[in-house]
């Protein structure tokens, strides 16, 4: 019987360590604190549910261990992209710019059509 209690304690400790060392984006369905309380208060059920439902198992994300230096570093692995400059034009200005672009595109298409007709007429004569 003590073997069963020791096994239950070991499973709970492993689940607790795994839940604590996971990043928030690697935990599903409940917040990390809720999973930790659930594992501590209901060791067998909480541990089983943690490993079946709460833990993200996808291979794309890697788990961090206690000794992983990324866990303690303040800087991100890749710098965040610079924010896009905000468009300060009014809606009317944006619409006017779009209309100008449409007119320019229509004029370019007309020029191409006339050149094609001119080149086609000269080649046929």
From TrEMBL:
<feature type="region of interest" description="Disordered">
    <location>
        <begin position="60"/>
        <end position="97"/>
    </location>
</feature>
<dbReference type="InterPro" id="IPR027379">
    <property type="entry name" value="CLS_N"/>
</dbReference>
<feature type="domain" description="Cardiolipin synthase N-terminal">
    <location>
        <begin position="11"/>
        <end position="55"/>
    </location>
</feature>
<keyword id="KW-1133">Transmembrane helix</keyword>
<keyword id="KW-0472">Membrane</keyword>
<keyword id="KW-1003">Cell membrane</keyword>
<feature type="transmembrane region" description="Helical">
    <location>
        <begin position="35"/>
        <end position="53"/>
    </location>
</feature>
<dbReference type="Pfam" id="PF13396">
    <property type="entry name" value="PLDc_N"/>
</dbReference>
<feature type="compositionally biased region" description="Basic and acidic residues">
    <location>
        <begin position="68"/>
        <end position="77"/>
    </location>
</feature>
<keyword id="KW-0812">Transmembrane</keyword>
<protein>
    <recommendedName>
        <fullName>Cardiolipin synthase N-terminal domain-containing protein</fullName>
    </recommendedName>
</protein>
